[in-house]
Design the sequence.
């Protein structure tokens, strides 16, 4: 049964007349009368006594009024709660990023944001593969390069630089390459899988032959461990490399690639307060870390 019947019922019960109820609901008096008559017909019960001075509730009407008022209060409360979800800094935010950027740069920033807003929950999805924001696989995505999809909203938040790195122990043993041609005499660490256009995989293919890639894996942590143990050289973002001197940069003038960083969300989420607050927070963090992301300093 339509809730409209009960809206009309409550209006008549509160005002005591069809005319006052009609004014309250901004409808005509006959409309109110028809709704009350139809409700009584469906319930097979008289809800009002028609008196000369107005409409009075019958015992059945009094009983149903108490129940309807409780339902109406619950509906109002539910509506206010749902409206508040998008306006309050609480709830779940699903974020997608590549493993390196997500683990080494993004996670500490999300931790800082969550400390400011303890009712926020995060799910961080780390993968080379791109999740589909249009299918709501994530709420916010941090990506390399602009996907150019019409229903996504975002902006370029900076650039990150990539370089060639190797363990100091490896370089001491095998020698440091002095030219790009010298790379033919070295071993490399590569990616096991990923999109065909993944920037690190594409760059490595231009520098080496497949046989030179002695170790492939699909996590940044394993790559760093392989490099630290002298298994070969690798291409890596500057922010990813340990600062303790155990891993050194090689051929900085020849290998200095830069890639745009984009922070994106779906157009339907841009006005959600928790999403907007996170985007603004990350914009500021990227602005502060612009140089370190770009040049590793």
Sequence:
């Amino acid at each position: 049964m339509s809730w409209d019947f009960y809206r009309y019922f409550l209006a008549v019960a509160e005002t005591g007349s069809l005319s006052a109820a009609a004014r309250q609901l901004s409808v005509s008096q006959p409309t109110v009368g028809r709704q009350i008559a139809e409700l009584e017909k469906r319930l097979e019960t008289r809800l009002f006594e028609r008196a000369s001075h107005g409409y009075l509730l019958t015992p059945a009407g009094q009983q149903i009024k108490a129940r309807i008022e409780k339902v109406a209060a619950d509906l109002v409360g539910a509506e206010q709660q749902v409206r508040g979800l998008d306006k309050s800094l609480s709830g779940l935010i699903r974020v997608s990023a590549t493993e390196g950027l997500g683990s080494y740069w993004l996670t500490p920033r999300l931790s800082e944001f969550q400390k400011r807003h303890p009712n926020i929950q995060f799910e961080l999805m780390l993968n080379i593969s791109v999740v589909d924001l249009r299918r709501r696989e994530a709420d916010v995505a941090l990506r390399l390069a602009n996907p150019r999809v019409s229903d996504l909203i975002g902006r370029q938040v900076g650039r990150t630089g990539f370089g060639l790195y190797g363990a100091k122990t490896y370089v001491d043993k095998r020698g440091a390459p002095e030219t790009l041609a010298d790379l033919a005499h070295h071993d490399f660490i590569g990616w096991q899988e990923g999109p065909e256009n993944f920037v690190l995989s594409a760059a490595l293919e231009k520098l080496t032959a497949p046989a030179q890639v002695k170790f492939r894996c699909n996590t940044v942590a394993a790559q760093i461990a392989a490099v630290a143990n002298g298994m070969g050289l690798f291409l890596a973002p500057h922010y990813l490399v340990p600062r303790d001197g155990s891993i050194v940069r090689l051929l900085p003038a020849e290998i200095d690639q830069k890639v745009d960083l984009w922070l994106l969300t779906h157009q339907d989420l841009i006005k959600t307060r928790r999403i907007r607050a996170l985007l603004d927070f990350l914009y500021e963090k990227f602005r502060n870390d612009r140089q370190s992301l770009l040049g590793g300093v």
Observations:
- The chain has two domains: 3-87, 91-297.
- The mean pLDDT is 85.
